[in-house]
């Protein structure tokens, strides 16, 4: 039996999702015989960790502080081993622009994009370049914050008139925004876990939102808003290619333990494009990693046990 601190909650916009993930993890760890202590991450985190003296920290902290390397850096300073990816991988994955540049540099397909921070618009006149960007990407354009997860802040700009409002919405979530070519098609997710020291792709999940054409925050976490197909019904060659790309992204970003890679299968071309990688995917009842594990014959408790078991003592 190990003493495991389950880090959850925090101050990000994904707080409620994180609390749900953390509660499920805590229950699973208890069933596995561990002493699982839930820690709602806040200003007293260091004091609470010192009081608990955990052997391992299970990071179920989504979004800000949890997926951007912040809490991982702190855990390393404190000498506490933790689950999931390390600092550098989290930094790269959490910044969609950084991740997409890395993918493009290594020949991994990702939708064409441009990215700007607030300074570019306020002081460098980037707004005057929008017509050229819109012409190159073609409509509809996806406008999203560069560092949010769970589809938070994402807007479709179907016409040039939609772009200013979409930018305003995206900037309300962060200081850098991404304008990305919209890829119409099927929304796929490839979860990756490590088994015997090697990364393994789990069965692919397809998310099909009900009564809408976009898999947004509500569709992700409200039961009944989305139908999931796992394994997704795909041509064998397409499925193999999706798994191959996901494993390439996992390795490129330096992920560890587990992660999820989201892709679009473009209608009409069957081309695959990586949207993003998530180093701490959700573990709620509607989350995709547990669904993929279940399809592979791995129960939720076994999944959590494997994640904890893969945690190295060096953090």
What does this structure look like?
With 315 residues, this protein is α+β, with helices and mostly antiparallel strands. The chain has three domains: 3-83, Rossmann fold, CATH 3.40.50.20; 92-109 and 183-298, D-amino Acid Aminotransferase, Chain A, domain 1 (2-Layer Sandwich), CATH 3.30.470; 113-181, 2-Layer Sandwich (Dna Ligase, domain 1), CATH 3.30.1490.20. It has twelve helices and 13 strands. The strands form three sheets. Strands 8, 9, 10, 11, 12 and 13 form a six-stranded antiparallel sheet that branches. A four-stranded antiparallel sheet has the order 4-7-5-6. A hairpin with a 5-residue loop joins strand 12 and strand 13.
Layout of helices and strands, plus pairs?
Elements: E1 3-8, H1 15-31, E2 35-40, H2 45-52, E3 56-59, H3 70-78, H4 87-94, H5 96-105, E4 113-117, H6 118-123, H7 130-137, E5 141-145, E6 155-157, H8 163-171, E7 176-181, E8 185-195, E9 198-201, E10 205-209, H9 217-221, E11 226-229, H10 236-253, E12 258-266, E13 272-278, H11 288-295, H12 300-309
Parallel strand pairs: 1-2, 1-3
Antiparallel strand pairs: 4-7, 5-6, 5-7, 8-9, 8-10, 8-12, 10-11, 12-13
Helix pairs in contact: 1-12
